[in-house]
Amino acid sequence: MAKIIKIDDLSVSVGLDDGGLRVFDRNQLNFEPKLGDEVDIFEGDGQVVVTRRRTSGNPFATVDGPVNGQKVNQLAYVLFAILLGTFGIHEFYAGKVGLGILCILFCWTGIPSLVGLIKGILALTRKADDDGNILI
């Protein structure tokens, strides 16, 4: 199983199963790399594609849910976090079902409201991509 072992501004180093090392340009990856990510490497027709292997130890993660983050619409996330943070709607929107359920369980304490307000403000300060999405 190949793993990302080093990340530079322009390149990513991947340790291979056989003990070898491959270095890829960051533009060859279709995801934002993080140290320790398990990856699959596909080669053919002179092209190389590196994809993140979808593994998660999170028992609440859905099959299509995020592994290390998910792109969400910034405006929708901020509004959900600030206005409906008490019930964890922003967490459900981001695919974090476990945290959403936790917010519902503790909504009577007011803590999820405060956390939602903080997360909304933090999401508002992130730079969105051309489509208005941010990585949560």
User: What radius of gyration results from the CA coordinates?
Assistant: 18 Å
* Number of structurally distinct domains: 2
Summarize the amount of helix as a percent range: 25-40%
Low-confidence stretches: 58-67
Total beta strand runs: 7
Strands ordered across the widest β-sheet = 3-2-1-4-5
Question: What fraction of residues sit in β-strands?
Answer: 25-35%
Oligomer: single chain
Along the chain, the helix and strand elements come as EEEEEEHHHHE
Mean residue pLDDT: 83
Number of helices: 4
Shape: elongated
- Structural class, by secondary structure, is alpha+beta
* First and last CA, distance: 26 Å
- Main β-sheet description: 5 strands, antiparallel
Task: Explain the overall architecture.
The chain has helices at 74-84, 89-93, 97-105, 111-125, and strands at residues 2-7, 11-15, 21-25, 38-44, 47-52, 71-73, 133-135. α1 (74-84) runs antiparallel to α4. It contains 4 helices and 7 strands; from the N terminus they run ββββββααααβ.
Summarize this entry quickly.
With 136 residues, the protein is α+β, with helices and mostly antiparallel strands. Helices cover 29% and strands 26% of the residues. It folds into two domains: 2-52; 71-135, no CATH class.
